[in-house]
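User: Hi! I'm a student and our assignment asks us to look at how structure tokens line up with a sequence. Could you show me two examples?

Assistant: Happy to help. In each example below, the sequence comes first and the structure tokens follow. Example one:
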Amino acid sequence: PGPDDRAAEAASKRHWAYVRPVRPDPPPVKRKRWVRNPVDAFVLARLEKEGLTASPPASKETLLRRVTFDLIGLPPTPDEVDAFLADESADAYEKVVDRLLASPHYGERQARPWLDLARYADTHGYEKDNRRTAWKWRDWVIAAFNADMPFRQFTIEQMAGDMLKDATADQQVATGFHRNTLLNQEGGIDVEEARWETLVDRVNTTATVWLGSTIACAQCHDHKFDPFSQKDYYRLLAFFDNGEYQIKNQGPRVMDNWIIEPELELPTPEQASRKKALEAQVARLQARLEADTPALAAAQARWERERAGTAPRWTALRPTKAASRGGASLEVARDGTVTAAGANADKDVYTLVVQARAPISALRLEALADPPRASPGRSEYGDFTLTRFTVKARAAGGADAAVALRRAEADEGDAAAAIDDDVESGWGGADPTRSQTAVFQPAEPIPAGATLTITLAHESAQPRHNLGRFRLSMTSAANPWGGLPLPERLGAGGPPKTPDDARKHRDALSAYYRSIAPALAPDRQKVRALRRDLGALAIPTAMVLRERPGGQRPSTPFRVRGSYLSPGDRVYAGVPAALPPLPEQAMPNRLGLALWLTDDANPLTARVTVNRIWEQYFGRGLVETSEDFGTQGERPTHPELLDWLATEFHRLDTRLKPLHRLIVTSSTYRQSSRVTRQLRETDPYNRLLARGPRFRLEAEMVRDLALAAGGLLSRKVGGPSVFPYQPEGIWDNPYSDDRWTESTGEDAHRRGLYTFIRRTAPYPTLTVFDAPSREFCTARRVRTNTPLQALTTLNDPAFFEAARALGARALREGGEGDDKRATHAFRLVTARAPEAEELSTLLAYHARERARFEKDGEAACRVLGEPRATADAADRAAWTMVGNVLLNLDETLTK
């Protein structure tokens, strides 16, 4: 080691977090009977030192509600409360804890904070913020927690599951942890720099999650406070710089290039079998499409002669009528140009009426990239997709008759896709910065004097891909294809200069002809249909990491001052010099890094992990700055307890369920949360733990509680993200056509954990209650108290629906008498029976509301969401308002 490394090592010895924890003995205490396990001894010793006493135990109802929320994230049912109250055995509480730890909802509860750490979301981020499929990784996390996978293995599989011997599909899915980074798909980016930003995020996240360290500060310079050098930073980054990726060109524009990392398909056996059969059919058809035959060669020669012929004379057609089914305004200029303005529907059909002044051998459609928009289409990027081009002709005094179109070609793309029998195919999608032209030839010439009705349908799966500016023209020429340009790429660079260039040009020309050849149209259509069938299989995928083959030691360029544009010497993968080295058996790769993170010699991982679990229960960690265990972070309030828990974690083989059980069965956890004047003055934030935890439920729990109280909550575990009610306009984004389509059935009432997370427009109800946007790793959620939260739980339609359902439950399950119904509703949200004053207040409120609704039947209908009043509408509406109040009690929203 050099001088810098020795200095860093010396600095680390001065700070407690970088010294391996040693298991302390529980301290002696005076109130020995209060101690249920060693956790209590450490807490009580500190209280006695400060001259404080522990609080009495919480009531059984309060304790059951607290531990149920803490272990499964849901409220207890009245039956569960009654069973606990009736169980007078010495281990009644321990039996409840064991039941909750065995619940499939335990994994959901533990997954919630892990998703924050992993920056899990369902979109890529940045302006486009396109969707991604990542929910299989979320399911893996839930299953891992439910199975009580040791945290050591949990870490290894997420960091390097793909590198394990004979890695299973699940182990590969686990690596999705580091695929949760943002993906930049914006125009004008340097794709390699965008990938580098991804690697930076992976280093920073790893340091926060497992080391509780602000190593991110060393990206540009040596850390100012902690013993991490800039070289340490790039040593860590090198571990991740050996992953597989490719630069994907998604289209003709530079802005369509971005980084693609591996994805894993996860079909069922039935899907796999069907996929194999469909792919075999596609392969057979593709072979026919690519085969060179004499007949095809002759057809291509004729086609080339036609396209090289003299350009015909085109006469612009000025529509006498132009209408839009989607509500757009079609303005017709003197030269026949039609411009669409105003409304831009997701799908639209334009209808044009023109007169044939002469016999028509072909019609030309120009998609014009003229001002004011300078692009031919109306989508955000100027694209269009013409799915259907049809013509009807009416002779004087006759009726409309469909005109058969036998051939269509364009200067780019397959115009024939607009006249085939496939309603989902279409012409368009070329460069939206230039005009494009298509020619349509009828089977028989259209006689002069006919009135033509032409429809341009834009009904693709891509919304708002409508033509914005276009012009129709006609010709009577025998060869309408003359002068129709070939795609720009076929003429790039001018005439071929060498025999090799000539061969490549001929190959490219033949490939293009095969893509539009009329003789091959049926096979092309079948391939499109088969590919749609493949897509309809909806085989789920998972984003995974995969190491590049070759076995080279991972390395990366050092970046001077942290700038991507200033690469320095190459740095090889390694761990910070101030911390223990890689374990002897570990290779310097991602798997070796995972083994190092979970090695007993690592002084940080166990401490950081148990501290985060403690924070989950008590609202603050033993180290309050759970993201920063460095010199600028808070010191632990109970350092011996932190070290004892860290060593106990290793003793338990890093299994989490026993650790959770240890904490929630302690006397410390079971205390009442009532605050005395003395505690408010001496320890207002409960850092000394002289009382039980009391703080607002997490965002997801607030919503889950309302749904559960109303009996609406779906308890289905796992699966794709869902789209519950959301106000209009949240997803309006000028860079995306994506839409929030509200889920139906039980998916509308899934747990908050499964709500679709769009990074640029996160679900507002969760955001109001302090959920992050998941753009970056979040170790601690802030807890705020704002009027907007009360307005949400009072007025949000999802919460009001829950209030309506809660009122219905009170009537349906509460029994006879308003007092019993009010008591039942109160228990559903608080787990306890109301006191006499509380009950009388609720009953008085119910009576006032019922009297109001008896006088105002329309108001009752509005509250119930029903078109007309029924005989019991006033009473049901009154109970809805009672439910609305109960869901907004401070006690309801507080653990």
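Example two works the same way, sequence first and then tokens:
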Amino acid sequence: MFGNYLTVALRNIARHKLYSFINIAGLAMGLACMVFIALFIRDELSFDRWVPDSDNLYRLDVGTQLPGRPMDRFALAPFPLPVFMKDHLPEVAAETHLWPVRMTVQVGDRQFLDQIDEVDPNFFDVIKLPLTAGDPGEVLQKPESIVLSEALAKKYFGDTNAIGRQLVMNRSNCGKELVACPDAAVTLRVTGVMRDLPHNTQFRLDAIIPHTSPVDRITDRGKQAWFMFNGSGYVRLAPGTAPAAVTAKLNGVMDRMLDFSSDINVRKPASQVMQVTLVPFRDAHMITLDDGGDVPPGSWTTIYGLALVGALTLLAACFNFTNLATARAMMRAREIGLRKCVGASRRQVALQFLGESVLMAVVALVIAMAMVEILLPAYDSFLQRPISLNYVSDWPLLLVIVAIALAAGLVSGIYPALVLSGFRPVAALRSNQSGRAGSGRLRTVLVVLQFAVSIGLGIATLVVFAQIDFARNQKLGFRHDNTVIIDTGRRMTATARESFVAALRAYPGISGAGMSSDTPFSSFVNISSVKLPGQASTVTAEEMLFTPEFRDMYGMKLVAGRALSDRRADDVVDRSDPDDSVRNVLVNETAARTFGFGVQGALDRTIRMDRHAVRIVGVLADMHFKGARRAIQPTIYLNDKADANFVSVRLTGQDIPAAIAFIDRTWHSVSPSTAISRHFLDDSFEKLYQSDRKQGTLFGIFVSVAILIAALGLFGLAAFTVGRRTKEIGIRKVFGARTRDVAILLLWQFSIPVLIANLIAWPLAWYYLRGWLQGFASHIALSPLYFAAAGLAALLIAWLTVLSHALRVARANPVHALRTE
């Protein structure tokens, strides 16, 4: 019997080529999309699952609630916090800290600028990353020790054993002038080699030194400061400890033992100013925050969205099968009637048709896996991560994929099987018709759902790309083209930095250069407490140090008052000034309004900023300094060269490679012992929306697949429907109907489900996209045009799909349709 069923199924697939192609192609595309989405979701959820003994390990995320500011949340922690928790909470078994910085490493006569991670000496005891050489408990105990990854050890020392080898780095934290630091060059010895970490981890670790190292970049003040977020903090809880209980207990201890009024001039309980969250180490990648981490975080919204898209795309393919199978039921009425006449039961007939649908699903799965193998390299390249499918080690995932394919076949065939197996043999044999070739109402519902999925995805794609385009092209309030950012850090004295900038300005290919404590599109934020005249409470504002040339170079617009100048002594900040001195500053429009002054009213007003009084002499136009996602914050600008560690250089655009080469030569002439750290500002701007562009592209790909599947199904259904109405159309033409009338009649029949699909898709898309847009401080409006465009596109696709069938039957000679009557 099985052989007979298989033979009949293969004959039907071969005989009805169009029907078989539509079903198999639709299922194959749906399954391929599902596999790609499953591979991405599996990769996202695998982050840090491989790290041993990490069940009780947590990352410390900190939120700060300061007056006049929204809650700022960071995947970072102040240096004292993990130690404070270990000292005051017995539930905390261990703690450690990590801070990535870029440093110059000298190996022999070669210089490298690499990321160096500063950690507590117990780092490998707390976070058990794999070492290929060295004892985890000993490798960082000596201040001059360093642990390298396998890749970095090979880069520095080739294939020779790196253990015991030496490299040279510069000492830091020696005061304002590095020339006053004796023995600036420090020799470090490799004490351990770490296995190269896989891509699915929150870390990007290649070189690790202890915080006790003489080249440690965190100052003694930074190690005591509660509002300097120097890296990430981690704690290990005792087994069986509930994180919520630890957080509640920590809040009470912080309120009793900490007073932040001297830091930020806010008299509130410490737990209301600083809120600590314990994020499970294995879930850290999926916790999306504004700041922190070496690796871009994941997003549960993206995970759920892609899972829904994959399910809907596969479901659309299943709808095709169900639609076409029920529509074609009357064509197999005689076969079913004969089977029942010779003794076949309804159960046997149902099993036969279920078997056919499962066979088609299996064929579609084979084709889908072939598509995955062909397209997987391009998929990896697009996602910029190695995503593989190993048929041996990934057998659990393969079983799930096979199960989904079989389930898709069963879901697709269950309703047609029930309909077909219910034919009455007498009626079927008398007219070769079933009498009820499946529910036309059901077919309409399935078409509506197919197009609702396609339209919803289409709207999402249009809005995502429109928002990205808006963010990229909105007026930021400053220029960012042809700009190079150089991070001098602590690698150059203030005097040497000024000489460096002066030399750059003299080059013909450079139109301007300025210094600042922050740069556009960075995640750095420096916050100061502001006391307004006549008010007991304080507000907070962001603080930025810059030189007058910086404002000119970026084209920052002055809307009131005057600019700062180096020629006026009270325009230049000196940190050694007595507390009763008054220096001049600029503020942005948001600060002027937040302080209650207004733009013009802010001029010549004196406020207290931390411990010093400052006078507002000018107001700058608001700028989207951090991009469109972040709201513009009150900002105070001070003219201070001493701590302005970033140099911004604007190129003329003529012979950019020569200008870059000049910058590099000038750097090495001023600071020969350190490598230059520079990047183009436009690169930082592009990274702001990189993940959104990828999300939009993925939506675009999947919406194309969903529309293609829907169009394929509609094409097959149209072919059936037009064939079924041939005699009706012949009669209409005999009574005077024109070709145009017949074509419009058929087009309207298939337009109704698409119009109903719009009514379903529009509110659902609006609800989802409204929440997504709230993640941007500046965003587009959800214009009805996006919804109308997607709906009209779906309608046009439906018309184009049906048009060929409609015209063919409308132009046919009615005699051929009626000659058998």
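Here is something you could point out in your write-up. Confidence is low (pLDDT under 50) at residues 175-182, 432-439.
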